[in-house]
Amino acid sequence: MATLTEIRIPSMGEGIIEASIIRWLVGEGSTVEQDTPLVEIATDKVDSEIFAPHKGKIRKIVKKEGDIAKVGETIALFQPEGTPEDISAPDREITPPSEQMPEKETEILSPQPQSTPTEKIPSEPYPPAKDHGPGFFLSPFLRKVAQDLGIGMESLASIKGTGHEGRITREDLYAFLKARQQGHENLSAE
Fold it and tell me: Which of 105, 140, 167 is the last residue of a domain?
């Protein structure tokens, strides 16, 4: 039987118990390299991607686009490269999240003596995204990229998001940067 790795919704911070599957970036049967983005997910606090743990193949997608999955729940089955093929492997039984969650709940409810990253958020140079109108959302990852590239919030607020509920995606930001760069090249060519 093939050795399969369960791709699960990771713990993404205190208070986050579930995530929406926004978009699968690969399909069943796709062969991927290690660290290839597999799926875009969204929570109330952050948009993120889940990456391939190893080089291998997506054997089965358990949660479809638009589904909600709890932290720790299996969303796909992954076969690492070098493990034997087994046609019946994708049909194996997935443990329901209700049987997996008690351990996670205990972990989440236990006291955390360390400081959490949420305590450091006020020191970010950008104000909260909600200050830029209804529907404007920028994930922490995109905020960091924009900050590193010196892009101001006013410029970011002008980007029309194509993601879930109008959110700005990485592709939207890169398209904006490309258009802005081409505009500067056209001005310098004159």
Answer: 105
For the whole model, what pTM was predicted?
0.48
Q: Which residue spans within 33-182 are E strands per DSSP? A: 37-42, 47-51, 56-61, 68-70, 74-80
pLDDT, one tens digit per residue, over 6-36 is: 999 998 888 888 999 999 999 999 999 999 9
Task: Answer with the one of 105, 138, 160 that is the final residue of a domain.
Answer: 105
pLDDT digits (tens, 9 = 90+) for 62-101: 999 989 999 999 999 999 988 876 544 444 445 444 444 4
List the domain range (segments joined by +) for residue 131.
Answer: 124-189
> In 38-76, which positions are buried (b, 16+ CB within 10 angstroms) versus exposed (e)?
bbbbbbeeebbbbebeeebbbbbbbbeeeeebbbbbbbb
Query: Between vectors from CA 51 to CA 178 and to CA 176, what angle results, nearest 5°?
Result: 15
